[in-house]
């Protein structure tokens, strides 16, 4: 009955109901309403967050732009270029060198472009052979413990894991490294060899730049010979044309709305007012300074204990990590540049790349005022490189100033000597140069184009998240020194930090942008593993975190292994930092032994290296017989090298090994992460 009625009703609907029922109309109205609401709500959100009446966006690409621009081959072909210079850069130097090479290519009728391998599909290297007389140059820095820079990591892994046929690719490599570190230019050397293994043709031998000596000199010398090899390989000649062509053009932004002007943000406009997790190199967290206290007991030097408040930030760190601090230049130096160049520092401007195909539209976030650029974005305290000397020549009205700049910009022995003495030895920065060569009056926008980016500063974290999950501690020495020209040079970051003193009243607390950089400097996975820590001066910083973490484990009832600390400073009553804390850890048994060396408390200087030699039995007992871990933190140039030599000697003598066996033993310790170093030069 029900079935027959159902059929009957269905028949009635088909034959008698109109073409569009009331239900159809209702559904149609609902769909139109939802679509209308979705479209206009999205449009409203877009317009509220992306109003662009006068905005010039910073040099970051959207995901769509990155996809469409990832083929550097298409860019080369569409713009008639044959030279591409890739850079692997952590601090900006490799990127700067890449730009200088690409610019000079015009002198050899090789139109060039600079490319970030992170933004490119590097598999397109196989197509380079399709471009006549093409050349790929790689300016590659080695970072950390023989690691590629962040932006070169994918390319490095592609070379390691791939087997592309690169026959027909012509290339050259310049490496940026530091001889005080064990893995000197390791990444550049690997890339140079791997490209050849994959069939590419090396046009010029690899150049190895040493930042511990004079990396500018290394680069210029290599670059000159590079072009000689290029001319020989391609059968071309230098045109002789100078390449002082501006990479960026000045844009007047006086009409830009105030809310569209950058005021010190690293990448995203108003990012400090509207903080968004996750926080990283392009999106730092604006942390309050919770504690800033002096650690030295007396003397004319200063060492600060600083605590960054990260409560509510969702930031997490591990013991042994680093924290990056974004500094700003002193207003005194910034004002001095404005005074010397008779410039309006509060004028709003932008620098726009003249190369429309470049993914880097601006050298720093734009638009902004000159004051903002000189305060937050540009390095005005380091020694300028020779290419800046060259660019300043045209702005010198005094022939004597012109000649001096020409000499320092040249690659002659006399020029190199003058640059080394007048710039490097006397430690002149751009402010000093403008003061001492008073006829040199560069356009401020051109100067902003030439100066390198102001880089963040890294500090070893001196706390454990187990004990201090809501704060990050650092230990920093205030940097001030007098140069041979009787000027006082001040460390950019530490002098800023010294001024950020938290208050006890209702006033807003001082803040500074930070982010966490992961490290391989780690405690052993098992708390029972014995360890030796060697950290004179502020090298103690990460070990304070190590000790806190082991002390936390002990208080939880877990077994902890031996902890032996070697610490040194000048005088016990002057710069013995964290003395009370360390003595308390000794008293409660967390710190098994505390070996102290006060270099100036007795006629003959005494260092931690002397104590290591005296305690060879203890050293071998922990690293040899008990398979413990050894950690070194501090100066790479002398202390860390001396410690390494002592360790090899102890292993050889106490382990009854030959010299080569001892070296292999220590090498194996490093590979097993039983010998770790967190050092700087």
TrEMBL record:
Q: Which Pfam families match?
A: FAD_binding_1, Flavodoxin_1, NAD_binding_1
The protein's annotated catalytic reaction(s) are: 2 oxidized [cytochrome P450] + NADPH = 2 reduced [cytochrome P450] + NADP(+) + H(+)
Q: Where are the transmembrane segments?
A: 20-39
Q: Which InterPro entries match?
A: CysJ-like_FAD-binding, FAD-bd_FR_type, Flavdoxin-like, Flavodoxin/NO_synth, Flavoprot_Pyr_Nucl_cyt_Rdtase, Flavoprotein-like_sf, FNR_nucleotide-bd, NADPH_Cyt_P450_Rdtase_alpha
Q: Where in the cell is it found?
A: Endoplasmic reticulum membrane
| Domain spans labelled Flavodoxin-like | 83-227
Coarse class of the protein's main subcellular location: endoplasmic reticulum
| A Gene Ontology biological process term | response to hormone
- Matching CDD domains, A to Z? CYPOR
Free-text comment on the cofactor: Binds 1 FMN per monomer. Binds 1 FAD per monomer.
Positions that bind NADP(+): 301, 538, 599-600, 605-609, 642
Topology versus the membrane: Single-pass membrane protein
Which keywords annotate this record?
Endoplasmic reticulum, FAD, Flavoprotein, FMN, Membrane, NADP, Oxidoreductase, Transmembrane, Transmembrane helix
Q: Name one GO molecular function term.
A: NADP binding
For this UniProt entry, what's an example GO CC term? endoplasmic reticulum membrane
- Residues bound to FAD are 457-460, 475-477, 481, 491-494, 680
- Give start and end of each FAD-binding FR-type domain: 282-524
Signal peptide boundaries: none
Q: For binding FMN, which residues are annotated in this chain's numbering?
A: 89-94, 141-144, 176-185, 211
Keyword NADP listed: yes
Record-listed E.C. numbers: 1.6.2.4
| Role of this protein | This enzyme is required for electron transfer from NADP to cytochrome P450 in microsomes. It can also provide electron transfer to heme oxygenase and cytochrome B5.
The UniProt entry's sequence similarity note says: In the N-terminal section; belongs to the flavodoxin family.
Instruction: Specify the protein name.
Output: NADPH--cytochrome P450 reductase
Source species of the chain:
Rhopalosiphum padi (Bird cherry-oat aphid)
